[in-house]
Structure to design on (432 residues):
């Protein structure tokens, strides 16, 4: 059995109530940077990668790729530098956990960067921050300056002889720059259009050099794993998805916010026990488990442990852990209109299936919501979404297709009702 009873342990956010934790002195007072110092002084890059592989840390940026395995793809630096990228673009609607990690624990993130930087031989980390995140960027800049002035970054990191710089780069408000190769293009000053793979970033990444891209939260777990060990980390979560994660809960709940809980915590527990359930005594209708790219689940399917292996069995995915809750007043066709408008606006336009498909899907949702749709439109919606999947340069088109498929799988009858009655049974207040 791969699923343990979740134990409530918070290590990423343990000190976030203390404002001083965001400063270098406050972070060091809690033992900050001592784990990185010890690792860089006493362990080899190979040891670090082996330990992280044993820990089984899964990337927290959406795809859930094993972090240690990703680091192991990096070649030794040869004829030039290796790079690391910290993906702080966080533009997925429903996802806001990285913002918390950056504003309340900037030095935890920097310490989390130093260990893989050492393991992958990276000379520099590009910290790519979402354009709209002005406050996190300001806090991180200050943290980088403090850490550089005090020798945690620079030519002799923590007195170990390892040299590493962190450079903060601001995005300009495009969702696609969160996709790792779109990010790399943007970093190089070009249009944020994803690259064809191969070559993968570990071979040819930023400025043509071997590069590893990880999410903010992925980095933040690293010092804790090296401080307390693999067995401790694996004592939380599930066999395949160890550790805690930050669930960002929004929508129709009493207490929206970020909750650090073990992976494998049940979705209904997150909604009802931690986020306080649906306000006003209304009934829960559906929830999206991991940001708008992931197929939603109806009320009867929410007893699922929140870990990739269990969500996949239910036809969804963990994504970024951004849980969006919808009560019985929510029209599912309208949900489709809102989500598809986002994807239509954010497609980079390189692939026909994505450029045309996202716009077409949006038009169909709107037509059905306005009562002008036909039964054939529902079939066409399904057909177009199916043709967008798995056929493009990057996973954006999949991310645009999956929510459509989830809506039709679980709420087709609501679409049929719109078509048969020629109107929305749950008219809402805002203009589409
Ligand atoms: C359309 C799209 C948007 C993405 N946006 C983000 C993002 O904002 N932040 C992020 O960390 N990963 C994002 N990703 C995933 C990245 O491509 C990449 O997998 C991730 O940064 C790797 O980090 P991890 O292995 O630590 O999860 C996005 C992927 C796609 C396809
Ligand atoms: S799938 Fe969409 S976002 Fe990704 S490269 Fe193609 S057009 Fe651009």
């Amino acid at each position: 059995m791969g699923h343990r009873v979740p134990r409530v342990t918070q290590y990423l956010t343990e000190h976030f109530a203390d404002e001083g934790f965001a400063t270098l002195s406050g972070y060091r007072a809690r033992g900050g940077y001592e784990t990185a110092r010890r690792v860089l002084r006493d362990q080899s890059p190979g040891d670090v990668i082996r330990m992280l592989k044993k820990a089984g840390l899964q990337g927290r940026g959406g795809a859930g790729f094993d972090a240690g395995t990703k680091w192991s793809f990096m070649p030794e630096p040869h004829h030039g530098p290796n790079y690391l990228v910290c993906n702080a673009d966080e533009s997925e609607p429903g996802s806001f956990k990285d913002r918390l990690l950056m504003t309340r624990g900037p030095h935890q993130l920097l310490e989390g960067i130093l260990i893989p930087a050492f393991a992958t031989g990276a000379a520099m980390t590009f910290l790519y921050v979402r354009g709209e995140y002005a406050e996190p960027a300001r806090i991180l800049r200050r943290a980088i300056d403090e850490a550089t002035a005090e020798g945690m970054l620079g030519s002799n990191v923590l007195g170990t002889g390892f040299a590493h710089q962190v450079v903060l780069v601001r995005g300009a408000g495009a969702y696609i720059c969160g996709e790792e190769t779109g990010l790399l293009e943007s970093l190089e000053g070009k249009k944020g259009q994803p690259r064809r793979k191969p070559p993968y970033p570990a071979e040819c990444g930023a400025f043509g050099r071997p590069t590893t891209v990880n999410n903010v939260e992925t980095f933040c777990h690293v010092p804790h794993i090296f401080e307390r060990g693999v067995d401790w980390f694996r004592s939380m979560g599930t066999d395949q998805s160890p550790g805690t994660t930050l669930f960002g809960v929004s929508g129709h709940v009493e207490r929206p916010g970020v909750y650090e809980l073990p992976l494998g915590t049940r979705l209904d527990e997150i909604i009802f026990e931690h986020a306080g359930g649906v306000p006003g005594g209304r009934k829960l209708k559906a929830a999206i488990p991991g940001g708008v790219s992931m197929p939603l689940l109806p009320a009867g399917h929410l007893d699922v442990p929140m870990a990739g292996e269990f969500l996949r069995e239910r036809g969804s995915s963990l994504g970024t852990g951004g849980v969006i809750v919808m009560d019985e007043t929510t029209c599912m066709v309208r949900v489709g209109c809102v989500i598809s408008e986002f994807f239509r606006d954010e497609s980079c336009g390189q692939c026909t299936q994505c450029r045309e498909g996202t716009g077409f899907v949006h038009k169909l949702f709107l037509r059905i919501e306005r009562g002008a749709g036909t039964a054939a439109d529902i079939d066409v919606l399904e057909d177009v979404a199916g043709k967008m999947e798995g056929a493009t340069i990057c996973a954006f088109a999949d991310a645009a297709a999956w929510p459509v498929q989830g809506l039709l799988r679980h709420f087709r009858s609501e679409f049929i009702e719109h078509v048969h009655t020629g109107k929305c049974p749950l008219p809402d207040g805002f203009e589409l």
